[in-house]
Angiotensin-converting enzyme
Amino acid sequence: MKSKPPHRSLNCLDFFVNDSTTSKLCHLEAQACCFVVILSGYCQLTRGDSRERSNSCARVGCSSQSQLRYCNVKMRCVVAITIVIAFLQHGMGYTQERRYVEGSNMNLGEALQFLREYDREASGMCFRVTSSQWNYSTNITETNKRRMLEEQALSAKFHRLSWRRATSYTWTRLPDPIVRRQLHMLAIEGRAALPEEKFNELQQLISDMKEIYSRARTCPHSINSINYNYRQSGSCDLALEPDLTRIMSHSRDYEELLHVWRAWRDAVGPPIRSKYIRYIQLANHAARLNGFHDAGQQQREGYEDSDINTQLTELWTNLAPLYRELHAYVRHRLVERYGPERIRPDGPLPAHLLGNMWAQNWRSLADLVLPFPAKPTVDVSSEMLRQGYTPLRMFHLAEEFFTSLGLKPMPPEFWRHSMLEKPLDREVACRASAWDFCNHKDYRIKQCTTVSMDDLLTIHHEMAHIQYYLQYADQPLLFRDGANPGFHEAVGDAITLSVSNPRHLLGIGLLNNVTDDYESGINFLLLMALEKVAYLPFAYIVDQWRWGLFAGDWNIDEMNARWWELRLRHQGVIPPIPRTEKDFDPASKYHIPADMPYTRYFVSLVLQFQLHQALCEAAGHFGPLHTCNIYRSREAGRLLGDILSLGSSRPWPEVIRIMTRGRTDKLDAWPLLEYFKPLTMWLNVQNRDESMVGWSTTGEDTALFARWSQDGGYAVVPSVLITFLAVVFALS
Ligand SMILES: *[C@@H]1O[C@H](CO)[C@@H](O)[C@H](O)[C@H]1NC(C)=O
């Protein structure tokens, strides 16, 4: 275990007691010591045994036997008092069970009637909104935008009304579990509880922030060096997509990368910051009206598990060692490329050198880090071109993957209305997406497909969404969703794990022979790790930051520092240049200004390997998990169909229980670790000579963003300590 920073600075010996103290003060000192210990590791201590506690006490300077005994005897009392103080400090209601909003109507028949009406009206509403969104995304004009906004406003009104009707029932006590579940989903939904003017203000804020984000443009590096005043320059029109993304992934020029990294954050951070502060207030206000402590708690309710954050933390703790191995290996290669004066060989990584604007996907570093560059990597793009593949044929190939499992083919409307290629006669939003029009008929994909392996994988992923839609089509509208917010993505990615497998590509004639040796396997797994393992900490911290902010765990004037603290602690990256609270770097990620939850991506990363493992087991796969391919397995298809057809009609732990055939009902990091096991062993060997697997953090690192971290991150302790001592005096 890594040693913690010493707490000597808070040593109670120096603080309260001198040589000639009375015994009472001695006891007091012991208590104070214990208290410091509690504050420095509350959970660890209360779970630990008494020896551990004694050791901890000794570490903070209370080493005499009598003090220790006292410490142990008084532990419970002290813990209780601590909890009371923590409770008071965090404000009433923090540890309190939430109270749902509900009314007095207990009539089950009326509730059933309401839900029947809701299903019909909401389906119609959903069809109209989705159609207008489709029309806009596939034909971007002002008229289509206006129509879409009108439909969205109508829909928002309808949902506010539905919230009111749903919460007029005493729904937590209705005897029918399916009715209860549906009303629960309606009652906790969104911001419907806000008064109209605040509701509109919040909608407007979010749409303003999204607008700032999507309109942001920056100057190119070379022009910038000549003339920094870009407003006078005509060519400052680089957009995040595709320009900045391309530079981030392809450039290996330290200064150019730094320029792009900074320019993007300058363009979006400061203008979004003040709007975001107001957004937090309104989102929290809505959450409280819904009976939640804050908007983060409201988001977590989507996981139906008040303990979900503990589960997430545990998962990340289990996965972090693998991430650190990858981090150390990649750092070694980057030091070779950029030099030790730019990257400390045992330190965190500058955030702009990882091939991605947020350092969340390191795949484009492949040319720098591929272990065995002489071995061919699997890319069937040119073979697809040689065989005369078209986008349509790629979609048919993907469909055949699903039907080979015994799952459903795409319906006729899919082929008639989908947008499979970029049209030439109008502007469209090219981001690939899968659509459910809520009418049991229309399911579409929108994708500007090019003939390439990447796009072939994307098609499989998007088509998995459609398969999910088709499988749960017979559920009530409210249950036509993933079992939890991570499921939809996980299903698509689990399918892709099979499809990207070289043996599968061989099987469908896109690869002539598979080089089945050790080196190719490691190459394959490393590329996967650059995409999935590298993403884990980022996917984890986005909502850790947001939830901390919503909960008021820290102040508005340290938002940016807290962001970087999380980035450094979990991701091992630092900003390449100093950041202040004028910057607002979280806004550089779309999901922050766009009000989109992020935990689903972390959940999906873990869950997709769980699902892959379960499907492979059903398919009777033997051998390493990364070589499995479920193509043509009816058994795997049956299991997948069972899972998908439930939609969100059941709590997701039950769905995981079905998936794992009763082995667990939890998210589980093990299948991911198992998948990457050969790579982990290889990385262990590679990193043998590293002075540090993981990263050491110096004052210089933290000084880049956080002045408060030097002059007293524990500044809160003395005041709490004094409160505590006052309580002890009062009691004794
Ligand atoms: C695009 O939308 C406009 C309305 O803004 C409409 O007149 C036009 O026909 C649409 N184009 C296509 C190809 O659908």
